[in-house]
Amino acid sequence: xxxxxxxxxxxxxxxxxxARLLGVSGHRVEVLDPGTADEPDGVPADVYLLKAHTPRGLxxxxxxxxxxxxxxxxxxxxxLCQDRTLMAEVAVRAGIPFAGTRxxxxxxxxxxxxxxxxxxxxxxxxxxxxxxRREDLVARVDDTEALRALALAWPDEPVVVQxxxxxxxxxxxLWAVGDQVFAALRRSELSPEGRGPTLxxxxxxxxWADLTRRVGEVFxxxxxxxxxxxxAGGAPLIVDVNAFPGIRxxxxxxxxxxxxxxxRAKG
Length: 267
Known about the structure:
This protein is an alpha+beta fold. The chain folds into three domains: 2-73 and 254-266, Rossmann fold (3-Layer(aba) Sandwich), CATH 3.40.50; 84-97 and 167-243, ATP-grasp fold, B domain (D-amino Acid Aminotransferase, Chain A, domain 1), CATH 3.30.470.20; 101-163, Dna Ligase, domain 1, CATH 3.30.1490. Helices cover 31% and strands 26% of the residues. It has eight helices and 13 strands. It has helices at residues 13-24, 55-66, 75-80, 84-93, 107-113, 144-153, 208-219, 253-266; strands at residues 2-6, 28-32, 47-50, 71-72, 101-104, 125-129, 138-141, 159-163, 170-177, 180-187, 198-200, 223-230, 236-243. The strands form three sheets. It has a five-stranded antiparallel β-sheet. Strands 2-1-3-4 form a four-stranded parallel β-sheet, with helices on both faces. Strands 5-8-6-7 form a four-stranded antiparallel β-sheet, sandwiched between helices. Helix 1 crosses helix 8 and helix 5 packs antiparallel against helix 6. The chain is globular. The chain starts with a strand and ends with a helix.
């Protein structure tokens, strides 16, 4: 099988380990760096793994799909996960427990109109960039003064605002590769202590793995991450979905990804 990696970082631990496994099994791995490579001529590879989420990477994936190539995850599914407004709408329509989300065209515009009567500022909220990308905005805002200070730093940023749900301060990081679910604990970046190391999570609460797989079905994803917090009553609340995250240091993840690639290549 010919298996393509659409990435600008083929040395990423997950991708490099997966490539080694595929090579040992006799498959040919081809790397396409969307920043430098042109679309390959000739017959496309049997499957492409889309790790690059840049505009050029998505354009490359779409072009390959138009030529009949299989791309994991599809360009459409990846693009959906980059828009947190659409993400929330899709999740809510499907009955998935997702954080209440509102959208504002710019952070400065919202801050200019937000006063003491603003419902979302009667309690803490989480402000995020609408468009999911590297180094995007994620911040907790407790009052109007803090909101306006944040708007000075990010005035033109399109944002979503999520209601803050009291929780332990730890994010449950769930990653899925096909039907296999991996999990870890990571202190929330919103925690006063800041983000800490990723800790193992050997046992998931009942139903959380199935909830993660349900997200994959709804968003048409094969490789994805789901960020879940446990609310005060213990119920899961999803705050983000990511297409093809890093899934670093998860035993068995490279094996699961190599097996998935081969299955989709044969599919």
